[in-house]
Structures are given as C-alpha cells and as structure tokens.
Amino acid sequence: MGLMKRASFGVLAGAVIGLTTMWADAPSARADDIVLRMAVPDWPPTRIMKDLADKYYKAPSGNHVTLEPDFIPWPDYYTRLNASLTSGEKKYQMLVSDSQWLGAFIDGGYYLKLNKFIDADPQLQAVFKDLHPNLVADYSSYPHKSTNYYGFPQMPDVLINYYRKDVFCDDGEQKAFKEKFGYKLPCDPAEMDNVTWDQWGDFGKFFQRKKGEMLAGKTLDDDFYGISYQAGKGYDFSSMQVLTMMYQDGDGIAGIWDETKAPNSHAEGVVNAPTAVKSFEHFLQLLDYMPPVAKTGTMDIFKTDELFREGKVASNIQWIGFAESTINPETSKVAGKVDFSMIPGTKLASGKIVHWANIGGQPFVLTTWNSDQVVKEALDFCKWWLSVDTQKKFAQAGGQSGLQSVYSTPEYLTYRPWNRAFGPSLDWQLDVWHVPPFFELLVEQQEEFDKAITGQENAKSALDTIAGFQENLLKEQGMIQ
Amino acid sequence: MAVTASGVRARGGFLALSWSNWPLALVAALIVIALAIWLLPGTAAFWVGLAAAAVVAFTVVAFAYGRRNNGALLVAPAVALLVVMNIFPLLWSLGLSFFRYKANSIQPPAWLGINNFATVLTSADVWDRLRTTGLIMILTVSCQLVVGFLLALLFEKQFRGRRVLLMLVLTPMMLSYVAVGAFFRYYYEPTFGLLSQFVRLFTGEPFLLLNTPWGARAGIVFADAWMWSPFVMLLVLAGLVSVPSYLYEAAEIDRASWWRKFRTITFPYIRGLLLLALLFRTIEAFKLFDVVFLLNEGGPGTSNETIALFIYRQSFQYNKTSYSTALAYIMLFVVVVLTNLYLYAVNRRARETA
Lengths: 481, 354
Hints:
The structure holds two protein chains of two kinds. By secondary structure, chain A is of the alpha/beta class. Chain A has 22 helices and 17 strands. In chain A, strands 2-1-3-16-4 form a five-stranded mixed β-sheet. In chain A, strands 8-11-5-12 form a four-stranded mixed β-sheet. Chain B has two domains: 2-96, no CATH class; 123-353, MetI-like fold (Orthogonal Bundle), CATH 1.10.3720.10. Chain B has a two-stranded antiparallel ribbon. Chain B is globular. Residues 1-10 of chain B have low confidence and may be disordered.
C-alpha cells in the first residue's frame, strides 16, 4: 500500500513539477529545488549538521538545495537503513554508515564509488589530502586500504579516557596512592596520557570503595568504582575495547583476521594467538574493578556513560561523542569535575608506549540511484561540509573534524576540553573488518566474548571458538584460501 | 464449492474467456507467476506477480457481481487487501525459500530446491535455539497459568478496592513490549536496580541476575509472566463467574469438600477457557523476541537466544533472506500444528460435554 501510495504521489508530484517548470521556463536562468534526503542516526553530530546546513549552505550552482535528514534512533539505525536499502525503495540520496558496513552495502551496489569524481575535481582531491590518512583508510576505502573511495567523515570519533579530576587530583588520595603503589597518581591530562593499562588497573583497585568509606575527603553514600569500559553483548560493545587492547599488545593489527592480506591471511592462529589470549585475559581481569553490571553482558556504551555521569566511576573509557553530556550540569552529576586524556597505552618490550585503538565514528556516503544533477549537488554539499570554515563551525558546536588543517590548529584545542586528546589519538586508529559478512563475524565474536565476560568460559576457549568459526566462514566465502 | 463450480460450468466451462471465470484466471496467474520468477529479474517478477494476483482478485469480484452475490461483493475490498498485503507476500516468501537469495546482494536468486530446509533442519544451532525456546516456553506458560489462575480465584470474590486492584493488575498487559523490556533491564541492573538493592539489604553485595544462563532465563520468564499472567486471569475469571451458584449451593448441602467442588464444578467450567489461554500463550511464547532481545540479547552467550531472535539475526542482520524464510516457514508449521492440536482438544471436550 505504501508503495502504491508513493507511486501515485510520484505521478502527482511529477505533474505538479511539470506544470511549474512549464510556468517557470519563461525566465532564462531557472533554479531547481533539490532535496538531499539523508538517513542519519539521531544524535548531536547529525543534528548540528542539519543546523549548519539550514543556516549556511548555499549551493554554488544557484539551485535551491536543502538537506533533509531522516533522524533514526541509534538502536534502530542499522535495521531501518538495511531495510530501506535492501527493499530497493531508493529513498535516500546520502546516508551515514558505520565503517564496518561498507563492504556489505557496496557489495549490494548501494554506495557510490567516488574515484571518478575525485579524479575530475581538484577541490575533492584537496579534501582527501587534508583528511587524516587513517580516516581515509577506515571510513572511505573498500577493499580496506585500497584506492577505491566511497565515504566522507561525518563524525570522526575515537576512544578517550574520561576521568574525575576532583578525585584523581585530591591531595589525600594522591598521598595514599603514592604510599600504596609507589608512584604518583596522575592528575593532569598530560600525565594521564602516559598511563598504561596496568596502571589504570591500579586506579581501579585503589578507587574501589564501599558505601560509608571516604573518597576525596567525603563519605560515600553508595559504592564507588575505579574504572569502567564497554563489555556488553549488543552490537560491538565489547569488541571495540577487546580489540583495542589486542592491537596494543601486538603493536598494530593483531588478534583479528587481516582483510588487507586476504586470501592469504588466516583467522586460526591469529585470533587465538597466545598474545591475543593474554590481551583478552587482561581485559577480563580489569572487569573486577568495574561496577558489577560489567559482568552481566549489559555494560554497553550507554551504561558506562550513565554510570560515569551518575558519579559512580573514577575513570571511564568512552567515545568522544558522549563527552558533551558529561560536562552539562543538566545531564551530569559530575559536570565541572571531569577531565579528558588519551586512552591508556601499552608499554612494549622496547620501552615504547603505544596507543593503538579501534576507531569509532561514522562516514557518510552517496547512493547509486541519483541523477547526475543530484550527484553534483550532493558532492557540492560534501565539499561545503568538509571545507575548513564549516568544519570549524561543526567543531565549535561540539563535533570533531578529521581535517588536519582544522584539528591541528591551536584554536581547535580551545573549543572543548577533550579536543587535545583527539588529534594525537587519530594517529593510532585501526578498524575491524569491512567485508560483507562483517555482521556474522561480529555477532559470533560478541557472543563468545560475552560467555567469557559472564564467566561461562575462559579467554582461551572463547578465542579458539571464534578463530574456528571465522576460519570456516571466511573459507566458505572464498576470503581465506 | 460445488455451487461455484456448477455456476462456472453453466456459463461455458473452464476455458471460457470471461472476466468472471476466476478459476481460469487463478490457474493462468500461477503459470504466469512461475514463468516470471523463472525468466524475469526479481523486481520485474515481483510486479508481474502482484499484477497477476490483482487480476485474479478482479475476476473473483466480477464473478460475484455476475451472480448478484452482494455479500461477497461487500467483503471483496477486505479480501483484496488481505491478498495484496498478506497472502501474496506470504506465498512470495514461500517461493523465495526455495532459492539462494540474499537481500543485500546484486546476485539474482538461484534455484536451490529444498536445500534451505535441509540446511535448517540439520543445523545444530537451530535445534539448540528450538530447545531454548521450548524450555522458556514451558517455564513461562506454566508460570502464567498458575499465577493467572490464582489471581482469578482472588478476583472472583467481591472485596473493597477490587476494581482498582483489578485495573492495576491488568496494566502490564497493556504496556508495550519495549517499555517492559527496558523496565526489567533496569529492574535487574546491579548498581541502580530495585532487585539488587533489595538483595543487598540482606547480603550487603550487589546481586547479579543476568550473568548465569539460569539467572537470565529466570529474568526472562519473570518479565514475560509479569506481563501476561493477567491475560490468563481474565480468561479464567470469565469462566469462574459463569459457574451457576446453585451448583455450589447443592454441593454445600452435600457437604462436598473444597477440592471436590473445585474438581467437579469449577474446573469443568473453566477447562475450555484454560485450554484457550494455554493455546494463546504457547503460541505467543514460541515467538518470544522483545523481552529477550532487550534484556541481554539472549545472553550469556547464546544460552537464552530464542528461535525468533535467531531468525531476526539471520534475516535482518546477516541478510540471509531465503534461508531465514525457510526457517520462518518451519516455525509457522510448528505453530499451525500446535494450534490444530489444541483445537482438536477443545473440540473433543465440546463434543464430550454436549
């Protein structure tokens, strides 16, 4: 019924447009009304985009171009988008896509390849040169790290460390920590940048307090916990953190099937390599110092965010995208008491501290069913979005920019307290698979991680199961020889 | 049916080219649809199929109009809607289950015969999910029957505040699944949750319900039973109030025990309704998705993943479209069998009592 209704509406709209163009044909230069309908998750970065587009975007062609985002709640986003794309309704001209979805939807022929437009347009070339290379690789290229480009950053995001400066910088706590662990409890963001996961575990141990005990000179009216990070079963709410720790221990891509070397790379022996098992054990061990919900498989990124804003945790590893609400007194009990640093690193045998991490955030892409005129307008819009001026406005309103000429200016650091951690973190970003069966890989991995997190299984046997599953699946799909 | 057939014969037989010859149109449509699926690309085949279905619907209407069958004409719009919105997609997906097809792939569907069904039935994962579903189903339905029954016994009597209390008890049934799922997630949450706060009064430690398979299962069963026991209560209550009071009075004179009264008077009256409640709740529990998904996505691991959740993953996350339709048809078959079993039981009772 919906289709029929739309069809008849289309006929009607066509007739109306026909009439109006006949009407408007008289003056020589005519401006078309073009609507760029865009599927976006409903959260601040996309709301800001709509806001800026409404206020400032004037199409260089002289046409009247409006951005019309379809704001879809995050938990529903993949399902709704997937339904729209696979049903063939061709509703959207642009859409926000998680980087992992690239392969699955490029394979279906939904995402527009940008190479020929980039080759023909020096302005686009300049944009791609100015973007951080990790963002180009993770958000735009498919096959991963090839020179086929599809996406532009909408909201680049990385994991950072949110911590309570009122607790960490308290003199009494500083003294007690030094006595107990023999080194200084970090307080400045610069000090916190150099922390390792082992030290972070010490903070967990140190700040785990019962109701009635003292914390930073005050009596606690509820239990308090030192640390928290994502360890949930839904979507990718444990993989992102587990892989981050595996990458660090392996100094680069590790603990994961390397799609860039397919079909010669394997899952078996890599996913369950001894270093990966050690990293995962480390991940599990740190759960002991987190709020107990960490061991139920429901500690997703929304739960860690809530625990931190409720003031139950001293230090939380979280995406930058959540930061705005922690410093707003209306949504946060810890507003004014928070500081931000890079995530903890791992000290390699060589003495070097590495901060490898799994990238967050999303690119946006163009779809394949648009007329040449709409494609041109959409690309003009992308160029406007990725212009220095617009990206600055986006960052001032609370977004992040992937343009080196924006995020590496001193001015950028003054927009938000966490911006200082953003640029340096970008250099360390890696990403999970982008291949079409990513969701099968992800769900099975999340299930096995969940068994280990809830204590049904140990790290080794979970990783063995994952490795076997991935080896089989990827062999079936011809991605492993 | 005999009347219809003779009606067609009277107008010139099966092969007559007339707008009211619906059996011919039906056969022709089936052939056209089969050919379209075989020869045309998926999208074109779909629209051709839909058009063929529409032609059949039209001939049926014309047939009814020709025979001045006003009743049939009046229901025609509803039937047409049903055909277009339900029956055609249902048959279409049945057809799809015999092909290899992924919704997000540009590869056209390829004929696979009954391979999808064979894969489904031999898959250890599917049997594991079916066992999980069966277990949860038995637990939650028996909980609902017991609690619902006890509630009905309570509300059968008149007492002060009965109406208000009855309304409160009925509320869960009217809430949306999503709200209930989100609510119980908070209820079981160890840091802020009520359950954990309560247990902490005694043990001093936060209580983790969801980190063992049986704990999570108990959580699911409790949430589902909380929501649906009132439904059972409503049905049973209807049975209880329909028992004529003179039977109890007579039993009173005979000094029959409580149990005897229940067994020989009350139970026969509510037996049919209890069976109906059992039927409804079993079918619903077999399809259980929302609470499980919202609570912890069937965790820990896959220990509480129901078959409905499994199908959701195959279909909407992995886009294994034809495989998941095959699976969905097997589920439909199970539900149909269950329904028929219960209907058989209900009918036999009806005959016995009649």
